[in-house]
Design goal:
Blueprint lengths: L1 H8 L3 H56 L4 H14 L3 H37 L6 H10 L2 H14 L3 H26 L3 H31 L14 H33 L1 H16 L5 H16 L3 H38 L7 H8 L1
Helix pairs in contact: 2-4, 2-7, 2-9, 2-10, 2-11, 2-12, 3-4, 3-6, 3-9, 3-11, 4-5, 5-8, 6-8, 7-8, 9-10, 10-13, 11-12, 12-13
C-alpha cells in the first residue's frame, strides 16, 4: 500500500487523471483482446485455413469500404464537445450530435451502395467460394452500426465515463464470443451460417452499446434534445474541415492496415491470407499496453487545450512516454523465441507458417 502511494506521488495531477481513466481502458482492452484471442482460436480451428482466409478477405473488404466513408465523428465530438462543455453550452453539443448522426446516415448509405456494386461485378473474380454475395451485403448492412459506435464511445469519453464505456465494450465482446462459439460448435465449417451469426452478433452488440450509452448520459442529454441542428451553423465549415482532415488521415491508416490484407488475399489466395492475418491479429493483441493511454489521453488533451493549460499538458506527455516504453521493450525477446511453439500449441500445426510473419509484424 505504501508503494502504491509512493508511485502515485510521482505523478502530477493530470497524469493521475490519465492513469485512472486509462486503467479502466487497459482492463477493458485486455479483456476484449482476450475475448478476441479466444474467438480467433475458435474461428480459425472451426473454419480451417481455407475458409478462414475467405472470411478474412470478405470482412476486410467490407470494413475497408466502410472505413473509407467514416467521417471520424468521434474526434470531432470530443474536440468541439470539450469546448461546448467548458462553456456550458449543452444545446450546442446536442446540435453537434445531430449533425454527426446526419453525416453518419449519408455516409453509411453511400458505402452500402458501393459495396453492392462491387460485389455484383467482382465477386466471382476474387472470392473462390460461391453463393456468398447476399451474405456479404447483409453483413455490410448489419455492420453499419459500427458507424454509430464511435458516437457513443466519444460521448462517454467526453464525460469521462471510462468505467461505463469499458464495461459496455467488455460485455459486447463477451456476447460476440458466445454467439460465434455456439455457431461454430453447431455448424462447424459453414461460411453461410457463420456470416448469419456475425450479423446477429453485430446487431446485438451495437444495440447493447448504444442503449448503455443512452442510459448513462440521458440525464445530461435529454433536457436539450430539442436543440436545432443549425445552432452551430456558423461552425459547419470548421467542424467539417476538422472531421475531413482526420477522416483522410484515418483513410490512409486503413489502407495501410487493411490494404496489405486485401492485396495478399487477391494475389496469393485464402491460405496465405489466413497465415498472415492470424500473425497480424496476434501482433496487434500484444500491443494492448499503449492503446488505452492513446484512448484515455485524447479527451484530456482536448480539455487542457481548451483551458490553455499547456505546462500541465507537456508534463503529462513526458511521463506517459516514459511509462509505456519499458514494458514494450521487454516483450520483444519473448515473442522472438517462443512464437512458433505458441502458435502451434494454440491454433494447431496447420497454422505454424504464421510464426515468421508474426515476429516481423510485432518487432
Amino acid at each position: 500500500m505504501g508503494l502504491f502511494r509512493w508511485l502515485l506521488s510521482r505523478f502530477d495531477k493530470q497524469s493521475k487523471i490519465l492513469f485512472k481513466n486509462s486503467s479502466w481502458i487497459l482492463g477493458s482492452t485486455a479483456f476484449r483482446s482476450l475475448m478476441s484471442f479466444f474467438r480467433s482460436i475458435i474461428v480459425a480451428r472451426g473454419l480451417g485455413v481455407e475458409f478462414y482466409g475467405i472470411y478474412v478477405l470478405i470482412s476486410n473488404f467490407v470494413l475497408t469500404i466502410q472505413d473509407f466513408f467514416d467521417m471520424n465523428i468521434d474526434a470531432g465530438i470530443i474536440r468541439f464537445g470539450a469546448i461546448y462543455r467548458s462553456s456550458n453550452r449543452m444545446d450546442k453539443l446536442i446540435s453537434l450530435i445531430k449533425l454527426s448522426v446526419l453525416t453518419i446516415l449519408i455516409s453509411s448509405v453511400v458505402s452500402i451502395l458501393l459495396i453492392v456494386i462491387l460485389v455484383s461485378f467482382f465477386y466471382e473474380k476474387y472470392v473462390t467460394e460461391p453463393g456468398l454475395e447476399l451474405f456479404i451485403i447483409l453483413f455490410a448492412i448489419a455492420d453499419l452500426s459500427s458507424f454509430f459506435d464511435p458516437l457513443g464511445k466519444s460521448l462517454l469519453r467526453l464525460y469521462y465515463k471510462f468505467k461505463v464505456n469499458s464495461i459496455i465494450q467488455s460485455l459486447s465482446s463477451l456476447l460476440e464470443l458466445l454467439v460465434v462459439s455456439i455457431t461454430i460448435f453447431i455448424f462447424k465449417a459453414d461460411l453461410k451460417a457463420f456470416f448469419i451469426c456475425l450479423i446477429i452478433a453485430r446487431i446485438l452488440s451495437a444495440t447493447a452499446y448504444l442503449g448503455g450509452m443512452w442510459w448513462e448520459l440521458k440525464d445530461e442529454l435529454k433536457p436539450h434534445l430539442r436543440s436545432k441542428i443549425n445552432l452551430i451553423k456558423d461552425q459547419y465549415r470548421e467542424i467539417f474541415s476538422f472531421m475531413t482532415g482526420n477522416a483522410m488521415t484515418r483513410t490512409l491508416v486503413t489502407l495501410i492496415n487493411r490494404g496489405d490484407t486485401l492485396l495478399l488475399g487477391t494475389l496469393a489466395g485464402p491460405s496465405s491470407l489466413a497465415f498472415y492475418n492470424l500473425s497480424k491479429r496476434l501482433a496487434n493483441m500484444f500491443m494492448v499496453i499503449a492503446d488505452p493511454f492513446a484512448q484515455g489521453i485524447y479527451p484530456q488533451i482536448s480539455y487542457l487545450i481548451a483551458e490553455k493549460k499547456f505546462p500541465e499538458l507537456k508534463l503529462m506527455l513526458i511521463k506517459l512516454t516514459r511509462s509505456i516504453a519499458l514494458p514494450l521493450a521487454l516483450s520483444v525477446p519473448l515473442i522472438i523465441f517462443f512464437n512458433e511453439w505458441f502458435i502451434t500449441l494454440v491454433y494447431g500445426s496447420e497454422y505454424s507458417d504464421a510464426s515468421k510473419p508474426f515476429t516481423l509484424l510485432y518487432v
